[in-house]
Design a protein that fits this description.
The protein has 179 residues and is an alpha/beta fold. The protein has helices spanning 10-20, 33-42, 59-68, 84-92, 105-117, 120-131, 136-143, 146-158, 163-178; strands at 2-6, 26-30, 47-51, 75-79, 97-100. A 5-stranded parallel beta sheet has the order 2-1-3-4-5, with helices on both faces. The radius of gyration is 17 Å and the shape is globular.
Length: 179
């Protein structure tokens, strides 16, 4: 598994990398969102830890761009500006977890262990939840359907969210349920 750490402060990148690097096969670093996006385009990491406030491209811009490109990867956000608006943006764009600076490396490590422990079914569920704004009960019901589940598994294995296709498929399935 590969971890990408994005922060404009080299010290932060190094501290996190040294503290959690043993959990991963490889740790890749970027100093801002633009550099990170270029690296993610070449080789998609399994987990991303990203600062919010960075030069050239901040964490929010990076999340939006990844979403537009259907790149689904768990993102853990770090910020020194823990406002309610930033927290709301984090959750709106599907951030897996959120830590304010100064943070405890042990908490980030625990969070990474949790992310890595997600089984395939849970990752399917999270993919669906992040791609769609339907209630959780309906997502669970839909994933019980073999055709829907197979579609999600294919999307997950190919590393795409196929948001519009998922939207169409869910709407079709929900339409059949309500008839």
């Amino acid at each position: 598994m590969q971890l990408m750490i994005i922060d404009d402060e080299e010290f932060i990148r190094e501290v996190i990398g040294e503290s959690v690097g043993d959990l991963f096969d490889e740790v890749v670093y970027a100093s801002d969102g633009l550099e990170a996006y270029e690296k993610i385009s070449e080789n998609r990491p399994d987990v991303v830890i990203s600062d919010f406030n960075m030069p050239r491209m901040d964490g929010l811009e990076l999340l939006k761009l990844l979403g537009e490109r259907n790149v689904n990867v768990p993102v853990i956000w770090l910020t020194g500006r823990g406002t309610q608006e930033i927290k709301k943006q984090a959750w709106t764009f599907g951030v897996y977890d959120y830590f304010e600076k100064p943070f405890k490396v042990e908490e980030i490590r625990e969070c990474l262990v949790d992310v890595m422990a997600l089984d395939r079914e849970t990752r399917l569920y999270e993919l669906c939840r992040s791609a769609m704004h339907v209630n959780f009960d309906r997502i669970s019901l839909l994933l019980a359907k073999p055709t829907v589940k197979a579609f999600y598994e294919r999307c997950l294995s190919e590393g795409i969210s196929a948001t519009s296709k998922i939207q169409q498929l869910i709407e079709n399935e929900l339409g059949r349920e309500s008839e």
